[in-house]
Design goal:
CATH superfamily: RNA-binding S4 domain
Number of helices: 3
CATH topology: Structural Genomics Hypothetical 15.5 Kd Protein In mrcA-pckA Intergenic Region, Chain A
Shape: globular
Pfam families: S4
CATH class: Alpha Beta
Protein name: RNA-binding S4 domain-containing protein
Helix content: 10-25%
Keywords: RNA-binding
Strand content: 15-25%
InterPro entries: S4_RNA-bd, S4_RNA-bd_sf
GO molecular function: RNA binding
Number of strands: 7
Distance between the termini: 54 Å
Order of helices and strands: EHHEEEEEHE
């Protein structure tokens, strides 16, 4: 389909004020494979089992930035990770592991 008036809505240009290194917490949990779906991720967050930089989070739409530390009380273990990157989609397991650094002893 042709674009009118030369507008290029398909390309995304980020300015200096744009937060290209931020992402919704629920999406990041899915992309990093800590949750299978956004619904499961939202349930984890709303139940208070996720901490962001030491503070309890209950809003799935909360922004997550590179360098943030997440403490997660998952069903089978407690994980502490540092966010290294954000993603645009859910990828393979090695791709997901590249999004975080496990910092728990």
């Amino acid at each position: 389909m042709a674009r009118r008036n030369g507008s290029d809505k398909g390309s995304e240009v980020r300015g200096p004020d744009d937060a290209a290194d931020r992402q919704r917490l629920d999406k990041w949990l899915v992309y990093a494979r800590f949750a299978k779906t956004r619904t499961v991720a939202s349930d984890l967050i709303e139940s208070g089992r996720i901490r962001l930089n030491g503070g309890r989070i209950t809003n799935p739409a909360r922004g997550l930035a590179i360098g943030d530390v997440l403490t997660m009380a998952l069903p089978h273990a407690t994980r502490v990770v540092r966010v290294l990157a954000v993603a645009e989609r859910r990828g393979s397991f090695p791709d997901a592991q590249a999004l975080y650094e496990d910092i728990a002893p």
